[in-house]
Write a structure and sequence with these properties.
The record marks 29 as: Involved in heme-bound ligand stabilization and O-O bond activation. The protein is α/β, with parallel strands linked by helices and 405 residues long. The chain has helices at 4-12, 14-35, 45-49, 52-66, 75-87, 94-110, 116-146, 236-244, 282-292, 313-321, 337-341, 353-359, 373-386; strands at residues 155-164, 169-176, 190-195, 204-209, 219-224, 250-253, 270-275, 298-304, 326-332, 347-348, 366-370, 393-396.
């Protein structure tokens, strides 16, 4: 139990964290990786280089400080991060390391403002916050390990099938090397895949949404080849998977994780809106609605550049054709002449508020969306303008959490 004095000191640092939070977290990662380079086997270095991870951590630290007197308020965020920690094999012994370098970073960035009293209060507060994470994650580890077909840590899977879905997206069908059962998952969850890429000093771990419904036989991930753009280099793992992992090869994955899942207890209309590779968590959601909630009205909207970049189109069409209550729409940013001739899309350009307003017939609709950050910002703004209540808006970031407002 934190003392009122500790709570007051930590809350007094909230305005400072709002200004200097990212500087602190950038310093934190630099200090920690210098002394513990083995942790580079866990963290996505691209997210470090482009600043996404420091920014996400700064937001988490800010939220924890702001709610230090009521940590239950940040439990949804703790659970979301906890799922990622569990899928990356973050364990209790990592938390003291993080705490040590977080305090050193606060001291280095804030200098004289980080008095002994402030550092001591933050040390106590971090201990309380870490205890919450460790407790939540302990339950997640237990659930993953004790589930039917579940396992602990990384498990070897064979690439049973590899299929090109578009010019930039390929699906990978993974079956357990030991031939034993695999755990089921909630539609929308992901797995972590670990590979050793030639030329890379450290192991690379990435998280990919499971793109097919639970079937007890295999897991499928559909991976976009991430090409270099501006300061971001080619995707290390996506390029390796596309070019160098072939049928019969073995990779290691953790059990399914994630809290971005379809709420099947609700019967209200559901709308899935995806951009590019953002449709992968929605394919199993759509199939689940069709199979388990045949009376539930569902709409599937997908945006792509054109048909060359549109993956899993026929698969979605088959699901839609099998149901009386599911409709789907396609939006192409730059359709080809063949797309026009084949009437392969329903809207040209971008998804906008006016078009969505025609498709959202009731504000009780549950809206799920995922895609590139600019796309997500536009969709978030549009559905709010239409009047969909916040509690009915669900989204997933591919990578560290960002800001949509």
């Amino acid at each position: 139990m934190l003392s009122q004095k500790t709570i007051d000191i930590v809350k007094s640092t909230v305005p400072v964290l709002e200004v200097h939070g990212e500087a602190i977290t950038r310093c934190f990662y630099k200090l920690m990786f210098t002394d513990h380079p083995e942790l580079l086997n866990v963290f996505n270095q691209t997210n470090q280089k482009v600043g996404q991870q420091p920014k996400a951590l700064a937001a988490s630290v800010y939220a924890a400080a702001k709610h230090i007197d009521n940590l239950e308020a940040i439990l949804p965020v703790v659970k979301q991060i906890g799922h990622k920690h569990r899928s990356l094999e973050i364990k209790p012994e990592h938390y003291p390391i993080v705490g040590k370098y977080l305090l050193l970073a606060i001291k280095e960035v804030l200098q004289d403002a980080a008095t002994d009293e402030v550092i001591e209060a933050w040390g106590e507060a971090y201990g309380a916050i870490a205890d919450v994470f460790i407790s939540v994650e302990a339950n997640m580890y237990k659930e993953a390990t004790t589930a039917v077909g579940g396992w602990e840590g990384f498990r070897k899977f064979i690439l049973a099938r590899k299929e090109e879905e578009s010019d930039v997206i390929t699906s990978f069908y993974l079956k357990p090397e030991d031939g034993q059962s695999i755990s089921t998952f909630a539609p929308g969850q992901y797995i972590s895949i670990k590979v050793n890429v030639p030329g890379e000093e450290y192991t690379s771990i990435r998280q990919y949404s499971l793109s097919d419904a639970p079937n007890g036989d295999y897991y499928r991930i559909s991976v976009k080849r991430e090409s270099a753009k501006e300061e971001i280099p080619d995707g290390v793992v996506s390029t390796y998977l596309h070019d160098h992992v072939h049928e019969g090869d073995v990779v290691e994955i953790t059990a399914p994780a994630g809290d971005f899942t379809l709420d099947t207890t609700k019967e209200t209309p559901v709308l899935f809106i995806s951009g590019g590779i953002g449709q992968t968590p929605f394919i199993p959601m759509l199939k689940t609605v069709a199979k388990e909630q045949p009376e539930r009205k569902a709409t599937f909207i997908h945006a792509a550049i054109n048909n060359h970049f549109h993956a899993l189109k026929d698969e979605v069409a088959e699901v839609v054709a099998s149901s009386d209550n599911i409709t789907n729409y396609v939006c192409y940013e730059h359709p080809t002449e063949a797309d026009r001739a084949n009437q392969a899309f329903d809207k040209e350009g971008y998804i906008n508020t006016e078009w969505l307003a025609e498709l959202i017939t009731t504000k009780e609709t549950d809206v799920y969306f995922c895609g590139p950050l600019p796309f997500m910002k536009a969709i978030n703004q549009a559905v709010k303008e239409i009047g969909v209540p916040t509690e009915n808006i669900h989204f997933e970031f591919f990578g560290p959490a960002g800001e949509l407002e």
